[in-house]
Amino acid sequence: MAIEQDVLVVGGGLAGITAAISAARSGAHVRLVSYKQSTLRHASGLVDVLGYTPDGEGPLVDPFDAIDDLPEGHPYERVGTDAVASGLALFDEITAGTYEGSHTDANALVPTHGGTIKPTARYPDSAAAGLASDGRDALLVGFERLPGFDAPLAATHLGATGAPFRARGVTVEFPVKLSADPKVTRFAHLLDQDEGIDGGTRGVRRALAELVKGHLDGAERVGFPAVLGDDHPREVRADLAEYIGADVFEVPMGPPSLPGIRLEDRLFAALDEAGVSIETGNPVVGFERDGDTVASVTVSRTGNEVPYAAEQYVLATGGLVGKGLDSDREGVREPVFDCHIAQPPDRYDWFGDDAFGDHPFARFGVDPDRELRPVDAGGTAEFDNLRAAGAVLGNYDFAAEKSGSGVSLATGYHAGTLAGEEAT
Amino acid sequence: MSDAESPPDDDVPSVPDDEIPAGDEFEPVQVFPDSDLDLREGADDCYKCSTCDTNCPVAEVDDDFPGPKFQGPEQWRLKRKDDEDIDASIMDCSNCMRCDTACPSDVPLSQMHNEARGEYVDEQMDTWSVEYWRNRVLANYRISAWFASKMPRLANAVMSNSLVRQVGEKLFGVTAEREFPAFAEQTFREWWAERGGPKVQSEDKRVAYFHGCYSNYNTPEVAKAMVRTFEHFSYQIAVPDQGCSGTPMFANGMLDDARRDAELNIKEFSQLVEEGYDVICSCTSCSMALRQEYPELFSFEGTAKVSASTYEAVEYLRIHEDLGSAISDAEVEFPDLAYHAPCHARSQGLDRQAVELFRDLDGVKIEDVGESCSGISGTYGWKSEKYEKSMAIGEEMFEHMDEAEGETGMTECPTCAMQMEHGSGYEIRHPLEVLEAALVSR
Q1: Is B54 within 8 Å of A3 when comparing Cβ atoms?
Q2: Which of A56, A120, A342, B141 is 20 to 30 Å from the Cα of B87, by its Cα?
Q3: Nearest Cβ partner of A306 from B292, B295, B319?
Q4: Beta-strand relationship, A293-301 and A304-309
Q5: Would you call B441 helix, strand, or coil by DSSP?
Q6: Entry's InterPro entries (chain A) (predicted)?
Q7: CATH code assigned to B40-123
Q8: CB atoms within 10 A of CB A8
Q9: Do A256 and B309 touch (CB under 8 A)?
Q10: Selecting from 1.10.10, 3.40.50, 3.40.1130, 3.30.410, what CATH number does the domain B327-439 have?
């Protein structure tokens, strides 16, 4: 007997969650199945829409001005500007009070942990005081045992970008005695708990502020690596700002990323609020076909295979990192439904010679029609009731364009809404 | 161009022609000497994102614990050099297996930890030490429980005596902070024999019950609830001979003890699988062991078959019966519940099952107390030197239990139940007991 629902979403990242919530809002019973923890935990937490054109022009001031000129087949061209705006509106609603940037269509410029500047449409409120368009001088603070953020180097890089303020960097020893290689979550939880240091009454936040204060030298804002609390980030920032006497912001970091973990928590809470059933821990390994439709997918529970049947399916398993695409020396495949992936037959044509050059593999993925149904090599939909969303889609290079989150939101919204409407 | 051709740079030493495989066929270079269990591929899959480390409950409270990434792929690589010992910190891993669920790249972390711990105990631990024997006795809980079940009242009186507990702590390193679980006056197996075995016969609906040690000796009401619920759905139940699932043995690196019991379990249950039975467990650590750890660690005939036929009890009904409709038509009188999902339920994708199922059941309110680990991890929290750590890990769960409306706890795991009771004073129930109360009229 199959486990039944109206809409089944495969994948628990930004695209899958957006699709599941969108489908649930049309009244469908939705189940989201996800194998491992999603790559949201790797994500910076910045929600970009389009920072550069496919030709490399940018940073773009307003991504919406450039969307109409995107080439045919690009996910934004497939779903249209309205879906991009609707996906963002859904995100804004879910993250209300914790994200900023919705007041304008224009991109914000956010400094990264490497000292570069990223154009992005939405950013966590913790990054707000750090914007590169802000003219106030900034002090960047790194921690001795947190090698992912070299504050003096990041400050020097920021200076080289021509940002309109003076940035300095210092490295301090975190006020709690730690091992040589503490986890980022360890810093966050120590700041959350704010317990007295060395048996005294002075908490971790105040002790850290006092270490930093002496380096301030006129800076009006202070940037820390994004480890300022997991459960209580707002309180941590507010206390640090008060004790230091300057605005405090977080600089987004690489994986594992606290802003990504906080966003994942918020999105999963939104799934619960929308009444979506959730199962994580077991992979979808195959499917049963019924004519032109997917009849059921197979979830593997350590060897025993359980069918899950739905009216409509959304494939949101991610790209090469999320393992929604699999590759070996023979080719690149979409492992669940074996959807067509266009690719040059010789794998030496998959990449360019310049490391940061234009690589065809970056645009590998399933090719969708305007309803986001993956199509075969002849352009016909592979299944009537299967749609794809997020990084499993091809025809765009999210790393170069800075469009990953926006594509996930827009295509997740579009695929989920259509699936929900058809299933109810 | 193929990978077999020499790189164009003349400065790079090229592979001699006779070592180049013909055509495009790829032959990976053997970097490490052959061993029985090659985890090379798993180690290579780690791309060092550290997601496992941020999910490790021990690393969260213990700065000196290097975390699952070190204990797994990094230590595995270091060990390829013959003169490297296993780092003693492997004994601080509680085998919660959260790193497995966390890893986005399918690295077999818990398998690596089990292997390393087994090697540490075999080759580096002093078998004359109190620690070794303390761990061995804890890991072989089934044997002490068997003795106790012969004289349950006496055993309960002795074990709850505070002087006995103090002596246990001083001499044997078992914490005096915890109260030993009470032994039932009649074990589940005694009850099963007394009632004359199965009351339902069926050709096509058959389950073999792996009850494990705890529901046999300590909480037979859980096992009885399982029996009555499955018979309500017309299943024929078999209760074959069985040992311990091995969970406490893996966690203590006692792989020889685990192998001994696994051999018996696989023999008994694979025979029943042949006869059309599926295997069900009421303890999520037992189902975890049969499903995942057995095929990772043992190769007895029938291992794969048992693994692929094993389910957690409620999961099995959810797959094979229309449990959702049965539940929404039912009504129950049950105290409101604060539910904790055990780590091993999480690894099997079962962490939301109970809450989502009972959300449609009239008469009981159930709240999830969050995703943190309970901290006890089987025998881990019973060791004096681990007790404080275990309670620090459990702190978040205790807080959430306190905030939840229900003042009765619920979980599938017997030792999580001990920890929940220890930290909150609540009585702890099992989902099967709720199912029985809702569906079975006695």
Answers
A1: no
A2: B141
A3: B319
A4: antiparallel
A5: coil
A6: FAD-dep_OxRdtase_2_FAD-bd, FAD-oxidoreductase_2, FAD/NAD-bd_sf, G3P_DH_GlpB_su
A7: 1.10.1060.10
A8: 31
A9: no
A10: 3.40.50
